[in-house]
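Input chain follows. Return structure tokens only.
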Amino acid sequence: ELHRMLREGEVRKPYLALANGHWRDKLRNVKLALRKYHTANGERRVAVDEAGQHAHTVFRLVRHCGDFSLLEAELKTGRTHQIRVQLAHLHHPLLGDPVYGRRLTIPRDADQEFADALRSFKRQALHARRLGLAHPVSGEFMRWEAPLPADMQQLLQALETDLARHPAYAE
């Protein structure tokens, strides 16, 4: 039953994502088909391709953070690397994504705390914040929340501090 619920989009799975660039929409439905493939050295990758499987993500802008955008991403389908590939395709790669992103560059005017936080952040800035679903037997809606991990919380705090020192970049 859980597999059916996942397959049919009955499970709510919002993520927090820190993406590069200035996201322009408060709410955006992204429907881009994704196709899996393997690289010459056997690594699995995913690309936007009309011949692939339907993939739907709803992105909500939480806030602009200077050169970054904090987004909530709600999966309507559950494709491999869905959020990462769709953001990269839209020219807003996930911060810290070594496969679909770009090389991390420290903004020239970043304060030392923010620059250090960026350098020490060793993963993708993506957090599965909540899971919600109706219990398969009772029908009662159930919800679980995961607090923001310390490293991502530290990165966002350093970014906030940097923005406070450079108010021209804040919104």
